């Protein structure tokens, strides 16, 4: 038997000078400053202080958001930046950060939201904005956040027989960097309903307010106006309520909701002639193998829905081993979509509208990444503190998204990386601090695979705001 040789051991000592880890977080701290987020949150919380502050509240808020982006899942983790003054500057300690969360109460939450919206407008103006000639897709979805402690305020039993919270979130889909901007989030008790229309309407209002003024839909826009901003609210069947659909219509937003598949739909499927089904399509325009779509608006009573609503069915062969349900017909999985997006807005007619709604599934990726960015665990006992934590982690996802859009679109491996990979490759990169000619230099570890891309991306982000 051949024995493997033990690798050569290195000598370990604690006398390194000028070395810094997690150097990439400095990029996000600069981005928070350049977008005006720090100043905006400071202004929103200024009246909560009786005198002068040592650490500006906006700076504390931004540092907590950057810490969450770096992997923090509790308030004490902000102290990991305390010994990185060369990169991060002075960082508030845990007690100050806790007090900042306490200050973001219901009266000041809207001010923080307005500061985030202003920062988004500056980021978009710097080059992170989407193409307003296309559709702005806002994806709504709720998720379960587990609480392992019974003493957290408003934690309750969920419909999945777990215990915790049931937040409802809205993301602006940004597929060019495989992520989404966090427009709004509503923290709810664990026993909150999945299809509560009032909650969806509240999140819709927050999401539209989070968009820059010039990117919000107008109810007075003339039909066919080429300069009009076109916004679509996408949701699964939990959002398919008459009240939410009407709220979208009242605000100039088109909707695309999953439609419940029940015995009515099953009966309609049996009545549709075979020649009426057309092939479903993929995002690249190709035919989706084993899937067909058909519009059945005239076969349903839709008078309670806003005028122009249409229902599209998709029949698809399920993957091998899938468990069929009683609503599946002839061995095909049946799904339905209700939408009021007008004809010729999306290429492909019924197949194009169905594809557009199918892409709502990307919101699951957004939520998974949000759970890897502080949403998996709401660390506070108090309700308002957890609401503030939710606002902070949504800010963290925005900072990462803007950094990708501004600095890394030319490096697909980083632009399309999920947050865990982005941390390991960019935020956690090591560097060396040097001083000379009255300058402090941050020298990225040259052995890092993406050292050049990180350096160029950081400089691009700086240049975008100059």
Structure description:
This protein has 466 residues and is of the alpha+beta class. The protein has two domains: 19-107 and 380-464, no CATH class; 134-370, Transposase Inhibitor Protein From Tn5, Chain A, domain 1 (Alpha-Beta Complex), CATH 3.90.350. The longest helix has 25 residues, at 383-407. It is built from 15 helices and 15 strands. It has helices at residues 25-34, 37-45, 57-69, 85-88, 94-103, 106-128, 197-210, 242-250, 263-271, 349-358, 362-375, 383-407, 412-415, 419-427, 451-464, and strands at residues 19-20, 135-142, 145-146, 156-157, 163-165, 168-174, 179-186, 230-235, 254-258, 278-281, 287-295, 310-316, 333-339, 431-436, 439-444. Helix 2 runs antiparallel to helix 6 (106-128).
Number of strands: 15
Q: Specify the number of helices.
A: 15
Indicate the percent of residues in helices: 25-40%
CATH class of the largest domain: Alpha Beta
| Average residue pLDDT | 91
The major sheet is characterized as: 9 strands, mixed
Overall body shape: globular
According to CATH, the homologous superfamily of the largest domain is Transposase Inhibitor Protein From Tn5, Chain A, domain 1
Strand order of the largest sheet: 7-6-2-8-9-13-12-11-10
Report the structural category: alpha+beta
* Gap from first CA to last CA: 65 Å
